[in-house]
Design brief:
Number of helices of chain B: 13
Number of domains of chain B: 2
Helix content of chain B: 25-40%
Strand content of chain B: 15-25%
Shape of chain A: globular
CATH superfamily of the largest domain in chain B: Thiamin diphosphate (ThDP)-binding fold, Pyr/PP domains
CATH class of the largest domain in chain B: Alpha Beta
Distance between the termini of chain A: 21 Å
Structural class of chain B: alpha/beta
CATH superfamily of chain A: Thiamin diphosphate (ThDP)-binding fold, Pyr/PP domains
Strand order of the largest sheet of chain A: 2-1-3-4-6-5-7-8
Helix content of chain A: 25-40%
Number of strands of chain A: 8
Largest interface: A-B, 22 and 19 residues
CATH architecture of chain A: 3-Layer(aba) Sandwich
CATH class of chain A: Alpha Beta
Number of domains of chain A: 1
Number of helices of chain A: 12
Order of helices and strands of chain A: HHEHEHEHHEHEHEHHEEHH
Distance between the termini of chain B: 45 Å
Oligomer: heterodimer
Radius of gyration of chain B: 21 Å
Largest sheet of chain B: 8 strands, mixed
Shape of chain B: globular
Chain lengths: 308, 383
């Protein structure tokens, strides 16, 4: 498994499509993950990006981080615009108006732009079956506007619109399972990824690039600013999220679930939670609740993968 | 005031957005649904901690469409409800804004105006949503839009907005620009301050006699909350007096006319502003929002130099304050309308102007505030 990843690493182009000069926060794992993904997507890629951190930090006047065609559109319709681009290119190629080559369209949005406001556009695009890849960069809140909760924020997390206190534990609902929602559209490829595991990420992007229908990548993007952790620990927290089972790495290929990196035996979720400022107010019983839920979800995933 | 005496006032340093929160809570707002957007996010953030403490409800919705829809639902259930957003979110709200007007559901919508169109200038001020507030949603409709220019006004206007929405069963839009929304000023709350709070008029007849959209002399039918025993039909379709969809011309016409009449009959209650030394002014400035502050400064400076300048500050943008503007047009030779857009209120002023008064504009659309110097320069140029 590891070796396979290494081969891939040596194969991937050295070219960069997310270049330096952006204004991401110190320790931002989101731009890191996107940069890795773009390496594999290659130069024949068109990116449609929703409003969000990546859009704001990558385009300070008069520079741009992107060396590929890039469009920023409103918050809710990254997938819809990608649908339009993909359809137009396909038709123009069919009519021989433009050169026939393998152009890939990707839509990129944050967790809010995916699981909240952009869900309708995403569902529509997946259902219509456009050949594109949707990447959700999940940093678990609206970080761009100053850390507000999204439906992807984990249970118990403190954000500015889910403040903990006497009447509230912080975020009071469980994280929305976006990969499962994407998989429910019966698209050929759905995967979770984390830049803390680059080889795994490369392999998954490569698969997403080659399928002929929609593909969906859910990328955990550790956000030191919003999670209240030291910036130098961003990679470490990505690893902890995977090793505690909070964010399992798996893929769904033609409906078949497969865990791509097994962290068993799982580390206790307390290892992941205790260092983060956003979970600082949680009591032992709250952490126990999260542990139960995490274990149950891990077991369910194993069941889906036929490992139980 | 002597020091030993117990203070009967509170002094706070508040942001415009925070003053809106204070005003909303004072007015009895107990429900807020919103979605993060700069520069209105502070309202959500504050209410997310304040509302649960007093038994209210804060919900962060999945988008602005959901936000205003939840607000409409909460209002029908009986809670005074509000949402806050900025340009892009306000665009998404337009459909349900029309619904609230059609179904006559009271609610308050704060639009902290930023540069546009589209994503525009998220952190820069603008006044370019004035016409959107008036005509953003489709169909002929009445609307109330208020515009504060100080932090204190943010507080007062928010209370007024709730009162007007409850009274007229119509959505009320607060158009605050980014400068006023983010600016911090001292604001004093007196304990013995008398603040009028208006609660919606409920039906006094037994449920079986209740006709939900019946015409009254004021044009405003009493409103029954869901769950109080009064069953009635709420729809976005054009409806008859019982609330059921109709396509009969003799029912449609009086209904649409009543919607307009309930606002037009009560202009004096809705419209308010401030005349600042306009009585003897040769040149008058008509301004609103943060620009009104610059205009006042410019007027003071101009008077120091011997030019008689006055200011009409508009706090009500819609319905347009025709009477007040006409008064200024009658007394001044020149009227200047500075705005941070390409001329949305100046167009209205020109429409109202029937006399020989010359109207000049200052249009600034670069995402910065119009300064007193710029207004002074314009006064020199045209005066």
């Amino acid at each position: 498994m590891r070796l396979k990843g290494l081969e891939l690493y040596t194969e991937h182009p050295e070219a960069e499509f997310a270049v330096s000069g952006h204004r991401a926060c110190q320790g931002c794992a989101e731009i890191l993950g996107l940069r890795m993904a773009l390496k594999v997507f290659g130069k024949d890629t068109i990116m449609a990006m929703a409003t969000g951190c990546m859009e704001i930090i990558s385009t300070p006047l008069p520079t741009t981080t992107w060396t590929i065609p890039w469009i920023h559109i409103a918050f809710e319709n990254a997938a819809a615009v990608a649908s339009g681009i993909e359809s137009a290119i396909r038709i123009l190629q069919e009519k021989k108006k433009i050169e026939r080559k393998d152009i890939h369209v990707i839509a990129v949005a944050g967790d809010g732009g995916t699981s909240d406001i952009g869900l309708q556009a995403l569902s529509g695009a997946l259902e219509r079956g456009h050949k594109f890849t949707y990447i959700c960069l999940d940093n678990e809140a609206y970080m761009n506007t100053g850390i507000q909760r999204s439906s992807s924020t984990p249970y118990g997390a403190m954000t500015t619109t889910s403040p903990p206190g006497k009447k509230s534990i912080g975020q009071s609902t469980w994280k929305k399972n976006m990969p499962k929602i994407a998989a429910a559209h019966n698209i050929p490829y759905v995967a979770t990824a984390c830049p803390s595991y680059p080889f795994d990420l490369f392999a998954k992007i490569k698969k997403a690039r080659t399928v002929n229908d929609p593909s969906y990548i859910h990328m955990l993007s550790v956000c030191p600013t919003g999670w209240r952790i030291p910036p130098d620990l961003a990679i470490e927290y990505g690893k902890l999220a995977v090793r505690t089972g909070v964010f399992p790495l798996y893929e769904v290929e033609d409906g078949r679930y497969r865990i791509t990196y097994s962290p068993e035996p799982l580390r206790p979720v307390a290892d992941y939670i205790k260092g983060q400022g956003r979970f600082r107010h949680l009591k032992e019983e709250d952490i126990a609740l999260i542990q139960n839920r995490t274990t149950a979800e891990w077991e369910e995933l194993k069941y889906l993968c036929g490992l139980r | 005031m002597k020091r030993e005496k117990k203070k009967n006032f509170r002094e706070l340093l508040l942001q415009g957005n925070e003053a809106i929160v204070e005003g909303a809570l004072r007015a009895g707002c107990r429900f807020f649904a919103g979605y993060p957007i700069t520069p209105a996010t502070e309202i959500s953030e504050q209410l997310s901690t304040r509302l649960p403490k007093i038994g209210g409800t804060f919900i962060q919705m999945e988008d602005e469409i959901g936000s205003i829809a939840a607000v409409i639902g909460a209002s029908l259930a009986g809670a005074k409800s509000m949402t806050a957003t900025s340009g892009p979110g306000f665009s998404l709200m337009q459909e349900n804004l029309g619904f609230a007007i059609m179904a006559e559901v009271p609610c308050v919508i704060v639009n902290a105006m930023r540069g546009g169109p589209s994503t525009g200038l998220p952190t820069s001020p603008s006044q370019s949503d004035v016409m959107q507030a008036r005509w953003g949603t489709h169909g002929d409709h009445p609307i109330i839009a208020l515009c504060p220019s100080t932090v204190r006004e943010c507080y007062d206007i928010t209370i007024k907005a709730f009162n007007l929405s409850e009274k007229f069963r119509n959505p009320v839009i607060i158009l605050v620009d980014e400068v006023v929304a983010h600016m911090r000023e001292k604001i004093t709350f007196y304990d013995d301050e008398e603040i009028d709070i208006f609660n919606r008029v409920k039906p006094s007849m037994p449920p079986e006699w209740y006709i939900p959209y019946e015409d009254t002399p004021s044009g405003i039918p009493p409103m029954a909350n869901f769950g109080e025993g009064y069953r009635y039909h709420v729809t976005g379709l054009t409806h008859d007096i019982r609330g059921f969809p109709t396509s009969r011309p003799d029912e449609i016409d009086p209904f649409i006319r009543r919607l307009f009449r309930k606002i037009s009959q009560h202009f004096s209650e809705i419209q308010f502003g401030e005349f600042f030394e306009t009585d003897d002014a040769d040149i008058s400035i008509i301004a609103y929002g943060c620009v009104a502050r610059s205009a006042k400064r410019a007027a003071i400076d101009a008077r120091a130099r011997g030019v008689k300048v006055g200011v009409l500050k508009l706090n009500t943008l819609w319905p347009f304050m025709r009477t007040a503007v006409e008064k200024v047009l009658n007394t001044s030779k020149i009227v200047i309308v500075p705005e941070m857009n390409m001329g949305q209120i100046s167009r209205e002023v020109k429409r109202v102007n029937k006399g020989p008064t010359k109207i000049f504009t200052i249009n600034k659309v670069d995402g910065t505030i119009i300064t007193p110097e710029e207004i002074l320069a314009r006064i020199k140029e045209v005066g």
